[in-house]
Amino acid sequence: MARKSQFRIDLHVHSKYSGESLAEPKEIIECALEKGLDGICITEHGSLYVSRPFEELKNKYPLLIFRGVELATDAGHMLVYGVDDEAWDDWGKDRICNAQELIDRVAKLGGIAIPAHPWHISRGAGDQNGLIVSVDDRVANLKNLTAIEVCNGKQAGNPIVHEILGTFAREQSLGAIGGSDAHTPENVGRAFTIFRAPIYTPQHLVNALMSKRYYPQIG
Ligand SMILES: [Zn+2]
Ligand SMILES: [Zn+2]
């Protein structure tokens, strides 16, 4: 069998375990497969533990299923990848974390923390289709960042947001990821990340994210 050269992974997906979504795990997985994704990462709000039921589904479908978490911080939401349930101990649950402390703690545990949707958008007389878009200053001031979320499915119709964030990532030598931020199954895959390295385990995912050899795409 030919070796796969690209892996398309939606790195930002919510399910019913978030409490803000009604999406059933099975429906999410089926939609991801229909859209031709190779994998998804479940990133529930506030708790890594709540998505543990996805572990049982990992071997039942031809789809890579990873689990991370999306935490509220003093620099906006951040996505956490590659941390182990036990070592993580559901850290940051139901509170606003210090973003720098989070980045450093995740790195110590061998994972990676990435700011989610780190932009500020207002409507006005700007020349960007009436949108005034800027990078969230709180994120611009963080140290030891590896990547930011440049494409988020909720802004799929506003390419200017992705352009501004993509330019910022290039200028700062940061990786640029994409994720749908789907709260319903049909939105899974509206944005995703294309990796040029084989990814089959959480460790592969972290290594690939560190390598910055990937790019975000709107689906
Ligand atoms: Zn968020
Ligand atoms: Zn989200």
What's the gist of this structure?
The chain has 219 residues and is α/β, with parallel strands linked by helices. The chain has six helices and eleven strands. The chain binds zinc ion (2 copies).
Write up this protein:
With 219 residues, the chain is α/β, with parallel strands linked by helices. It has one domain (7-218): TIM Barrel (Alpha-Beta Barrel), CATH 3.20.20.140. The protein contains six helices and eleven strands. The chain has helices spanning 25-34, 85-88, 99-108, 137-140, 159-171, 202-211, and strands spanning 7-13, 39-45, 64-73, 76-81, 112-115, 119-128, 131-135, 147-152, 175-179, 191-195, 214-218. It has a seven-stranded mixed beta sheet with strand order 5-4-3-2-1-10-11, with helices on both faces. A two-stranded antiparallel ribbon has the order 6-7. A two-stranded parallel ribbon has the order 8-9. The protein is globular. 45% of the residues are buried. The mean pLDDT is 94. One zinc ion is lined by residues 70, 77, 116-117.
